[in-house]
């Protein structure tokens, strides 16, 4: 899914981006911490699992057809008024299995079916890896006090990760970030994406302000606002 496609799916306008940007700025005004926010359509390509499911479906179709081999041969002979050549059944099975596998593969790319086909553990690991990857790519870990966090959303998998830098991890338990992440995921499922981000960002800001309060010199070390990522390349 491309950048514009995700924006359309989210029904985002310029105002929504500005609201999220303001939420980040307001939260950061109370703390020396930095908040990065990103959303990606997918955290990984799951072609292996989709292809595996398609192959399994094709194998099931073949297993169902095999007991009817004689009837299939008889239908051919009845229709064409001649004996079926030896290659006709293998060809029929190959074409049928290929067609079944192709249809199944495309069906597996439908989000609802995709979430059934791909094991939950694989989805969880992929989302976590993508979050840590962007945490590194974004440079949020380079803040002076190592007080940056990343709020990462994997849209199609409906999962959220909050990754905190080392300075924050020493003072704030990951369990607290996970609670905010779970709440954000639940609120996004209700369709109010912008409001969900605003609430989560505000709660992140409160946690940061308690442990990393603002002081006079507090440069903004990271751009505010929501970053929309392309699909993962690996």
How would you sum up this structure in a few lines?
By secondary structure, the protein is an alpha/beta fold.
Strand content: 5-15%
Strand order of the biggest β-sheet = 3-2-1-4
Kindly state the number of beta strands.
4
| N to C succession of SSEs | HHEHHHHHEEHHHE
Rg over CA atoms, rounded to whole Å, is 25 Å
Q: Fill in the CATH topology of the largest domain.
A: Diaminopimelate Epimerase, Chain A, domain 1
Multimerization state:
single chain
Write the layout of secondary structure elements.
Elements lengths: L2 H8 L3 H15 L5 E7 L6 H19 L3 H12 L7 H20 L3 H7 L2 H19 L9 E7 L4 E6 L1 H4 L4 H16 L3 H19 L14 E3 L6
Helix pairs in contact: 2-10, 3-5, 9-10
Explained architecture:
A hairpin with a 4-residue loop joins strand 2 and strand 3. The protein folds into two domains: 152 residues, Diaminopimelate Epimerase, Chain A, domain 1 (Roll); 70 residues. The mean pLDDT is 86. Helices cover 59% and strands 10% of the residues. The protein has a four-stranded mixed beta sheet with strand order 3-2-1-4, with helices on both faces. With 234 residues, it is an alpha/beta fold. It is elongated. It is built from ten helices and four strands, in the order H-H-E-H-H-H-H-H-E-E-H-H-H-E. Helix 2 packs parallel to helix 10, helix 3 runs antiparallel to helix 5 and helix 9 packs antiparallel against helix 10.
